[in-house]
Amino acid sequence: MNVTRFLRPVLERRAALTILSRNISRESTELKAILKDKITEHQKKVKEFRSVYGSKKIGEVIVDQVYGGMRGIKALATETSNLDPEEGIEFRGYSIPQCRKMLPKAPGGEEPLPEGIFWLMLTGDIPTPDQVASLSRDWAAHADLPSHVVTMLNNFPSHLHPMSQFSAAVTACNTESVFAKAYGDGVHKSTYWEYTFDDAMRLVAKLPTIAATIYRNLYREGSSIGAIDGKKDWSANFTSMLGYNDPKFTELMRLYLTIHSDHEGGNVSAHTVHLVGSALSDPYLSFAAGMNGLAGPLHGLANQEVLVFITKLMKELGGECSDDQLKDFVWKTLKSGQVIPGYGHAVLRKTDPRYIAQREFALKHLPDFPMFKLVSQIYKVVPPILLETGKVKNPWPNVDAHSGVLLQYYGMKEMSYYTVLFGVSRALGVMASLIWDRALGLPIERPKSMTTEGLMKLVGAA
């Protein structure tokens, strides 16, 4: 009997069913079910790859990297995004311009819905409008906070930084963790990702409510955030709770929350969530830890530092200034031992595509705003000066050089709050990554550390 001939029709029918199944799955609004199929496929891919190439060297570590913040060491697996030094960030292979064009938008809207970038980072697929709408409904349905978290937020002192309040509230929400309960019940580790998924979805849903409550308490005399509208998307509910009714501000938030969502896995906030999650801390605790890292002035707080710099510049030089006046101010700043905030990046070697996206938004909606004009002037003047110093590898602006100016234009003047917005956005990327961490069964992270004496001995130094 010709076995191949006998099996061919069976295999062809099975292939056809598989294709049909995938087509149905691709259109389904059940994100968890779609993700389960994706995880099964990717687990197999990773297993096969490691079985063949697991012992292959992918680089070497030099002493300067050990002392230099592990810069450039390839040591993490992150599925959601990749940061290329020359091309910038790509989400599952899609650039920011592609995401702005291809991801679903609100009816009549111009900018992509953040729900779409979350779907893309989890599955690798551009979602349909129906799939994005299902996420909006799901997040609206789980946006309420536990009463004890509301009480805690309403009793924080007004001098407690918004990021401290944000982190503390997220930590307190872990009373709701289904992952922690499931782990305590002894569920099999192969299902960890499912409970992580459930927590991540609910955490993302609650973050705008937490953030809006903080904003209202600090800057709007504790006024009510109002009710969640199940017919609105995530960003629209967020801006409504904040108290902003300008549709263009909502469009800005959709763009902002999309482009700030992820920047591969090595930055402080993403790495911290991964690290703490590797100890099987639940998503609430893991995310709160990452937010404490985001609050640092060398990470998410940098957008606030940029606004302080621009405000100081405008105060010293007056309204408009010449390029020569601006150059003198920049040189004076550098010679005093300070940096130009918002310029340079640990990985990028070109203008941050996130900066470009925000610049395009500003050119369309606020081209004559004096602060935007100054940002544009700085963009022209600063890079050549930084190159002239001979000490800067990347003289180009990053995302923080622009975002605060847009928020100022629409009336959000409270600079100390900006990093909270960054945190709400960053949840999309780090939660998608955390789900994949558990799906791939990544172990607790524990690199080897060494003393200086040990390193000297290792390299044969006297």
Short summary:
This protein is mainly alpha-helical and 462 residues long. The chain is built from 21 helices and three strands. Helices cover 62% and strands 2% of the residues.
Layout of secondary structure:
Elements lengths: L2 H25 L3 H23 L9 H5 L13 E4 L3 E4 L2 E2 H7 L11 H10 L5 H13 L5 H8 L7 H11 L5 H8 L6 H28 L14 H9 L4 H13 L8 H11 L4 H12 L7 H16 L5 H13 L17 H13 L4 H20 L10 H10 L8 H22 L12 H8 L3
Antiparallel strand pairs: 1-2, 2-3
Helix pairs in contact: 5-12, 5-20, 6-10, 8-10, 8-14, 9-10, 10-11, 10-20, 11-12, 12-17, 12-20, 13-14, 13-20, 14-20, 15-19, 16-18, 17-19
Task: Please provide a written account of the structure.
This is Citrate synthase. The protein has 462 residues and is mostly helical. Among the domains are: 193 residues, Citrate Synthase, domain 1 (Orthogonal Bundle); 111 residues, Cytochrome p450-Terp, domain 2 (Orthogonal Bundle), CATH 1.10.230. Helices cover 62% and strands 2% of the residues. Strands 1-2-3 form a three-stranded antiparallel beta sheet. It is globular. The N terminus is likely disordered.
